[in-house]
Write a structure and sequence with these properties.
single chain; alpha+beta; Metallo-beta-lactamase, Chain A; ten-stranded mixed β-sheet; seven-stranded mixed β-sheet; about 20% helix; globular; DHPS-like_MBL-fold; transferase activity; Metallo-beta-lactamase superfamily protein; Metallo-beta-lactamase_dom; RibonucZ/Hydroxyglut_hydro
Length: about 400
């Protein structure tokens, strides 16, 4: 079981969506800090002279860009999870391509030297959407650039010996692709293990559940497929070293990262969401689950996280009364091309799990976001590029209403 963290900060470096203008939902002001907003970018811009006055200049090139994929930095200023004075940092996937990751990481002023682990969800490169069935996204196209940038940042900080570990599933296909009629369409190759090592990383291959950062984060094993409507990635294929293409609709190497945050959530937010249970001080706020594309199904992923415990390198069923509450589910929900029945079934079962917050991004699609807001008002949070969410057992500062598009005075 992952340790209880004092706090967790989540920064979205890559996502399909960019929104630098909308404020956070009113029920969540104080729990989200959008460093990528126009208000915060404006505050941090350089001074120039316009006429006889010194003013700040907002440059459009300071704004992040959306990209088709996902990269979530469980850190800001090197402070992902904190236990006492110990601060650890991991990166969940690296997005579709190198330029996008580098651009956004720099614009968000991310503290790269503090990243010690890059966790890879599945090996999938690039994206296609065919006849409402096929969606494949790139989660690690920015991998090699990210490794090099982290190593350079560590060198500049004098911490080159810290290194960076890439945590991956060992079952890596030579190529992935999909069936289109009678034809197989191949995707580009993922960065190989040798290339990751050459870029400066240490590759750690794990197929079993395990923890990262000395027990602060838990990486799942294979996620059981239980619901009837979460059927994987229709038409997916893989090519292994034997040179034969085979069906791979389950994407069995898909994994999720979970962590647990100490304490009760701030009373002001709880009062606005009376249907939610109060957090148990012993259990903390509950589980925060981060998922890549949820090919295993976001409900399957959440249920598995809720009832599984890390014990002796195995995921065992929790005993009665020991199941963890779900506090937040962050990442791709794999519903952008699903039919209405699957969307509604997903939202119905998510509601039964009673999460405090839902943060659908990347491949989730607009329909599930609307359905979540209708079914569970006030629990939807944006996963747009530049969004930074802070989960902690303390009251957080609210946004400055005098500054347009600002959700916090923090920087």
């Amino acid at each position: 079981m992952a340790l209880l963290l004092d706090s967790l900060e989540v920064t979205v470096i890559i996502d399909n969506e960019l929104d630098v203008m909308s404020p956070p939902p009113p029920t969540t002001v104080g729990s989200i800090i959008s460093h990528g907003s126009l208000g915060n970018i404006s505050r941090e811009s350089a001074h120039v002279y316009r006429g006889n006055e010194e003013v700040r200049e907002l440059k459009m090139e300071s704004i992040c860009c959306a990209a088709h994929g996902l990269s979530i930095l469980l850190t800001d200023s090197g402070q992902t999870g904190t236990i006492g004075n110990e601060k650890r940092s991991i990166l969940f996937d690296t997005g579709p391509e190198e330029d996008a990751w580098e651009r956004n990481a720099k614009r968000l002023a991310s503290f790269l030297a503090g990243i010690e682990i890059i966790q890879v969800a599945p090996f999938i490169y690039y994206l296609y959407t065919i006849n409402q069935y096929m969606t494949m996204a790139n989660f690690i196209g920015g991998m090699l650039r990210a490794i090099r940038m982290i190593k350079e940042a560590q060198g500049a900080q004098g911490t080159s010996n810290a290194g960076v570990v890439v945590d991956v599933h060992p079952s890596r296909p030579k190529y992935r692709g999909f069936q289109l009629g009678e034809e197989i369409i191949s995707l580009q190759a993922d960065p190989g293990f040798d290339a990751m090592t050459a870029a400066g990383a240490t590759v750690s291959k794990n197929s079993q559940p395990h923890t990262l950062a000395d027990g602060m984060f838990h990486v799942s094993g294979m996620i059981p497929r239980e619901t009837e409507y979460e059927t994987g990635l229709k038409g997916a294929m893989r090519l292994d070293d034997d040179g034969k293409w085979e069906k791979d609709e389950e994407i069995a190497d898909e994994r999720a990262v979970t962590c647990r945050v100490r304490g009760e959530y701030n009373d002001r937010l709880y009062n606005k969401l009376q249907t939610l249970p109060r957090a148990d001080k012993e259990k903390g706020l509950g589980l925060i689950a981060v998922t890549g594309c949820s090919h295993a199904g976001v409900v399957n992923t959440a249920r598995h996280a809720k009832r599984s415990q890390q014990q002796g390198g195995k995921e065992d069923e929790a005993k009665e009364g020991q199941e963890e509450d779900i506090f937040a589910i962050i990442g791709g929900y794999h519903l952008a091309t699903s039919d209405e029945a699957a969307v509604h079934a997903t939202v119905h079962d998510l509601k039964a799990l009673n999460p405090h917050f839902l943060v659908p991004g990347h491949c989730s699609g607009w329909r599930v976001k609307m359905a979540i807001e209708n079914a569970m008002p006030g629990r939807l949070l944006p996963c747009s590029v530049g969004a930074k969410l802070t989960f902690a057992d303390q009251a957080l500062s609210v946004g400055d209403p005098s500054v347009p598009c600002s959700s916090s005075t923090n920087s």
